[in-house]
Amino acid sequence: MNMTYDLIVIGAGPAGLAAAQAAWEAGLKHILIIERDKEAGGILNQCIHNGFGLHLFKQELTGPEFAGRFIDALKQTGVELMLDTMVLSVEADHCVHVVNSASGYQCLTGQTIILAMGCRERTRGAIAIPGTRPAGIYTAGAAQRYMNIDGYLVGSRVVILGSGDIGLIMARRMTLEGAKVLACVELMPYSGGLPRNIAQCLKDFDIPLYLSHTITDIKGDPRVTSCTVAQVDEHRRPIPGTEREFECDTILLSVGLIPENELSRQTGIVLDPRTKGPLVYENMETSIPGIFACGNVVHVHDLADNVAMEAAKAGRAAAQAVLNGPRSGEEVSVSTLPGVTYTVPQHLHLPVRDPLVEFSFRVNRNYGKSRILLKDESGQTLARYQRDFMVPGSMEKITVPQVLLEKRSGGLILSVEEGEAA
Amino acid sequence: MYDVIIIGGGIVGCAAAYYLGQYDVKTVLLEKENDVADGTTKANSAIIHAGYDPQPDTLMAKYNVPGAALAKELCEKLDVPYWQCGALVAAFGEEEKPQIRRLYQRGQANGVPGLRILEKAELHQLEPNLAEAAVQALWVPTSAIVSPWEYALALAETAVRNGVVLNLNSEVTAITRQAAGFTVATTSHTVRGRYIINAAGVNADKVHELIGKKELTIQPVKGEYYLLDKSEGDRVAHTIFQCPTAAGKGVLVSPTVHGNLIVGPNAAQCGPDDTATTALGQDEVRSAALKSVPSINFRENIRNFAGVRARSDRGDFIVEESRSVPDFFNLAGIMSPGLSAAPALALAAVDWLKGKGLLKEKKQDYIDSRKRIRFKELSDEQKNQLIEQEPAYGRIICRCETIPEGEILAALHGVIPAVSIDAVKRRCNAGMGRCQGGFCGERVADLLMREHHLSGLEVLQDKAGSQILVAQPKGRR
From edge to edge, which strands make up the β-sheet containing B82-83? Predict the structure, then answer.
């Protein structure tokens, strides 16, 4: 069976939903969203804490409520939603191979495709924590699903490795359900989570945060009985003699998210080793014309609001591609200097349609008062922005009026400089 | 009253059960855990060694080559993933070249076919990611890789289909002798039988001493491993060994039948139940591996694990009737090349039983094949036909490995049903991929609950006592 859509969106999480809505509003009428779960919403369905929608809707919504806004809006459109369906592969010629129980295995074609597969959690193996391999070790997101979707506590005495947002949220969540969270252990000298989560999830519950520490051993079989936590030096290596033992039955790992690009890789889409996501243009188009990507699959976000706004860009771009033909323009690279871990987009097609060009990026350490500089290859500064502080845990965004880019010579370079303004 | 009691459901015990299932005798296999292959058999290098390594006058040499040939046949018959990828034993420097020559000669003496010594240029052409320092290697075309737990499961399932009784959760606690045979008490049932085959792995000495004198000692030796993501799976095309030392074959780098890269093991004495990995052990394995293949990207590691070798105090396999207890046969000290030798070792026990006057006739019609549906290997039409018959094959549960609900249901309702999340993983690979069950674990738990009528609080990660959920604060859904 071969059905051609204007747009196929892979994933009905916040990115896929927002992309489909934007594509519909921009005029596409044959849109299909494919979702592997039994309902739309993606990871938002298990994020029952609030704080979503502060920017987009000026409200504090829970994850499911935020997803619900898009799901309800889509019900008023002709966008099709195929649930309980897994995408097995995407061909470079835009054939999407899917499988589900109802219709079996099919090939669907989209004139444009938007990848919105989100990300997966980094596992214990990726950081090679030594010790036993008992029950009681979970990634924070998996524990969150057991708690919020299934109603089960995964443990009663918990040590959390990683102070990223998911770990912090779960520290509070498990405490509220009666578990004792003994500590949050963070490898770096600063936390990776949003400052408001440190306050509302650790400080408010008197859960100690051990910066520059890591778990060096896990004991217990068939269930965790304890773990060893040690301080680390400036090279992140454990310092002998600083070990302390925590008697616990549960370890939650919140040690990073990895964009889930197995499909993208198989399709032959070029990935950025810094983000682990596709290289994209300002309109979220990948290296394959007509295939776009948005949300956590491109780079790991902190705020669902930003995911939705980025996804809307991709949705509008897909609509433009179908209605007005492919993008053209001069290819302009965007590179970074040390201090900036990555930027999205990694390149531009100039001139762009919008008068403004957005760059999202992260710094690789805490910065105090600093300047963000957008220069060209000749060293000319095209735009500068002030910040009071920047942290790796918060994605930064600058919006550059396109006219400022017109006088560039060569590619663009994004950098940050600490200190008072020159 | 059984004719034969096999103690130990690892690869050797399962192989013995498989062969005995072909005869008109009553056999019971006793396994202490809640699944077969849950000890050393699931935690090793997964290599079917060609047989050049053991000294020619040892039992290891005697059983390795025939065992490896039988392994190939059995994996074919019983649908076990097996790939004859070949191996290279590399010399890193001129001073190691004499060792290569010695291994070549040993291999010839042991009857290993096709051995050749490759010089530097040919070697690096065959294996471009090998370290520059590799100057020569023994090329071993018959060396193979296998899925060791699926191998043991296939043997055990076939045995059960042929009438062998499998008693899980049956740790042997006492053995006594009566006129007619043995009485074996376990943590579940007590069984009686005329002959005992002791295939109890790291506990073989303890099992023997329940009734016999101290004639064998097992010194457990731990080996640690890294298992890397499929993105590293083609880092090497063959199994890469370094020259062996007194401690053993050393750290290898190899593709796996599942498409991953496995690196390890080291060797460190330990207790019989000590499968924890260690910082030192992991570092040792990692540095040794980088010596062979400097470009391994360890950031792509998905799992560390350790297995415990059952090393005997005789420096060799122990394949003999107990010297103090007649009718009690020891298959003990089965460390490397134990996985490779297993079917040949089992046949040694079969021969011993024949010598006792048992096993006169094979059954008329015994089952000697097995087939498992692997959804991702089917053609598009086959996929569709299957889904039409069984819609559960249309719902993919494990995204990383493309495993549908149908395969998980087959695991939950198979000949030896899976009773834990890891048992499901061993049968159909759900949870074996790069997210290590982060996504599918909860869905597998759900299916376990539904199909085995368990509450969430009863779902096990693997062994007894490994419940994954501890409370249900919101009450029942």
Answer: B47-48, B144-146, B82-83
Contact A20, A89 (CB under 8 A): no
Kindly state the helix (H) or strand (E) to which residue A61 belongs, with its residue range: strand A61-62
Do A132 and B273 lie within an 8 Å CB cutoff?
Answer: no
Which of A137, A138, A152, A254 to mutate against chain B (most B CBs within 10 Å)? A152
Chain A contact set for B303 (CB, 8 A): 123-125
pTM value is 0.96
Q: CB of A230 within 8 A of CB of A242? A: yes
ipTM of this complex: 0.95
Closest partner residue to B279 (CB to CB) among A145, A216, A262 is A216
CB spacing of A101 vs B391 below 8 angstroms = yes
Residue of B nearest to A140 (CA): B438
CA distance A314 to chain B (A): 25
Mention every residue, 6+ apart, whose C-beta is less than 8 A from residue B98: none
A141 vs B contacts (CB less than 8 Å): 438
Among B404, B434, B470, beta carbon nearest to A156 = B470
What's the per-residue H, E or C state across chain B?
CEEEEEECCCHHHHHHHHHHCCECCCEEEECCCCCCCCCHHHCCCCEECCCCCCCCCCHHHHHHHHHHHHHHHHHHHCCCCEECCCEEEEECCHHHHHHHHHHHHHHHHCCCCCCEEEEHHHHHHHCCCCCCCCCEEEEECCCEEECHHHHHHHHHHHHHHCCCEEECCCCEEEEEECCCCEEEEECCCCEEEEEEEECCHHHHHHHHHCCCCCCCCEEEEEEEEEEECHHHCCCCCCEEEECCECCECCCEEEECCCCCEEEECCCEECCCCCCCECHHHHHHHHHHHHHHCCCCCHHHEEEEEEEEEEEECCCCCEEEECCCCCCEEEEECCCCCHHHHHHHHHHHHHHHHHHCCCCCCECCCCCCCCCCCCHHHCCHHHHHHHHHHCHHHHCEEECCCCEEHHHHHHHHCCCCCCCCHHHHHHHHCCCCCCCCCCCCHHHHHHHHHHHHCCCHHHCECCCCCCECCCECCCCCC
Nearest CA in chain B to A102: B391
Instruction: Tell me the pLDDT tens digit for each residue of B330-371.
Output: 999 999 999 999 999 999 999 999 999 998 889 999 999 999
Q: In terms of CA atoms, which chain A residue is nearest residue B438?
A: A142
d(CA A198, CA A371): 26
Residue partners of B321: CB distance under 8 A and separation at least 6: B327, B328, B329, B330, B352
Q: Does B457 touch chain A (CB under 8 A)?
A: yes
Q: pLDDT tens for residues B127-144?
A: 999 999 999 999 999 999
Preceding omega of B391 cis (within 30 degrees of 0): no
Give chain B positions within 8 Å (CB) of A139.
Answer: 438
In the DSSP assignment, the letter for residue A268 is T
- CB contact under 8 Å between A105 and B438, yes or no, is no
Asked whether B29 and B17 are in contact (CB, 8 A), the reply is yes
Residue B477 has pLDDT above 80, yes or no: no
Indicate yes or no: CB of A134 within 8 angstroms of CB of B466: yes
Average pLDDT over residues B29-34: 98
Task: For A24-81, write each residue's pLDDT tens digit.
Answer: 999 999 999 999 999 999 999 999 999 999 999 999 999 999 999 999 999 999 999 9
The token pair that represents A34 in the structure block: 């494919």
Question: What residues in B contact A151, CB-CB < 8 Å?
Answer: 472-475, 477
Listed by number, the residues of chain B in 303-342 with a beta carbon closer than 8 Å to a beta carbon of chain A are 303-305
Q: What residues of chain B lie within 8 A of the CB of A130, using their CB?
A: 276-279, 281-282, 304
